Amino acid sequence: AQSVTQLGSHVSVSEGALVLLRCNYSSSVPPYLFWYVQYPNQGLQLLLKYTSAATLVKGINGFEAEFKKSETSFHLTKPSAHMSDAAEYFCAVSSDTGRRALTFGSGTRLQVQP
Amino acid sequence: SAVISQKPSRDICQRGTSLTIQCQVDSQVTMMFWYRQQPGQSLTLIATANQGSEATYESGFVIDKFPISRPNLTFSTLTVSNMSPEDSSIYLCSVVVGPGQGVEQYFGPGTRLTVT
What we know:
The complex is a heterodimer.
Chain A: E1 2-7, E2 10-14, E3 19-27, E4 31-38, E5 44-50, E6 56-58, E7 64-68, E8 73-78, E9 87-95, E10 103-104, E11 108-113
Parallel strand pairs in A: 2-11
Antiparallel strand pairs in A: 1-3, 3-8, 4-5, 4-9, 6-7, 7-8, 9-10, 9-11
Chain B: E1 4-7, E2 10-13, E3 19-25, E4 31-37, E5 43-49, E6 56-57, E7 68-72, E8 75-80, E9 89-97, E10 104-107, E11 111-115
Parallel strand pairs in B: 2-11
Antiparallel strand pairs in B: 1-3, 3-8, 4-5, 4-9, 5-6, 7-8, 9-10, 9-11
């Protein structure tokens, strides 16, 4: 069984500040981990993915995430927030062992204050 | 990647009726899924749409309520049957793209359903 926990349903940062969105996972097999972003009234866009290669993964729009097996974490960061980053962010897990469907976390809404 | 379209993009339906949502992909894909996103919530997997055979449903979802068809590798439909206000959600289809089984999953724009 797999699960994802996102700590903090709402995160608010100032424009230019560091963005840190937390994600912890549980998986009985080596996981594949993903971050998706959902802008208001839009579908999901893949930000980045971890698939057992480099533990530090760079994605689109300046975001990156680090896979830490010892901490079962895959936190999303961005050095400097932009107003356009305001959205809902979802962490998700799947695996290589047959089941490809994603298990999603509950989501974190990022607000960026001017 | 894949370009995925869904029809309709949104609809308002009366309780007791049914709505069929279409998902079209611009390339042949092995794996296709249907998810539900209830208002203010995360995404929950409804079922895996299997080409040429019955869909595989997740716990809490049944074929009588959410019949799914997948006649080929580029198209699928999800029907929401005998709707109630609790079915008001965004319904999204997704596909796995890549060599072999692949790992990246791409989502359609979603169908926003309101049941009155």
